[in-house]
């Protein structure tokens, strides 16, 4: 954690930086504008092998799906994430966030924890 804080402090004021771990580059976004630029780009990018490990944690979804599938899913879901619609769910999101925090605090006492099902349930409770 201290190493990541030093990197962030070193690159303070910059929109992003590249961190090399062994032979793989990881782009770290420090400013939301940089993330917006990436996400609004209409070019399709294939996901790196890093997403395969995320697939184990989050399952197959919009975050981890291949480019073509991601493009279709994003097009279908985009209207659901309009600012005015999300504002209506703020109380629900906050309440469910407190549930997740309580759960994760309990899980830190264990040596191993599978958080996929509880996080999926909270996500579903938030949107359904």
From TrEMBL:
<dbReference type="Pfam" id="PF00067">
    <property type="entry name" value="p450"/>
</dbReference>
<keyword id="KW-0560">Oxidoreductase</keyword>
<dbReference type="InterPro" id="IPR036396">
    <property type="entry name" value="Cyt_P450_sf"/>
</dbReference>
<dbReference type="GO" id="GO:0005789">
    <property type="term" value="C:endoplasmic reticulum membrane"/>
</dbReference>
<keyword id="KW-0472">Membrane</keyword>
<keyword id="KW-0408">Iron</keyword>
<dbReference type="GO" id="GO:0016705">
    <property type="term" value="F:oxidoreductase activity, acting on paired donors, with incorporation or reduction of molecular oxygen"/>
</dbReference>
<dbReference type="GO" id="GO:0020037">
    <property type="term" value="F:heme binding"/>
</dbReference>
<keyword id="KW-0256">Endoplasmic reticulum</keyword>
<dbReference type="InterPro" id="IPR050196">
    <property type="entry name" value="Cytochrome_P450_Monoox"/>
</dbReference>
<protein>
    <recommendedName>
        <fullName>Cytochrome P450</fullName>
    </recommendedName>
</protein>
<comment type="similarity">
    <text>Belongs to the cytochrome P450 family.</text>
</comment>
<dbReference type="GO" id="GO:0004497">
    <property type="term" value="F:monooxygenase activity"/>
</dbReference>
<keyword id="KW-0503">Monooxygenase</keyword>
<dbReference type="GO" id="GO:0005506">
    <property type="term" value="F:iron ion binding"/>
</dbReference>
<dbReference type="InterPro" id="IPR001128">
    <property type="entry name" value="Cyt_P450"/>
</dbReference>
<keyword id="KW-0349">Heme</keyword>
<keyword id="KW-0479">Metal-binding</keyword>
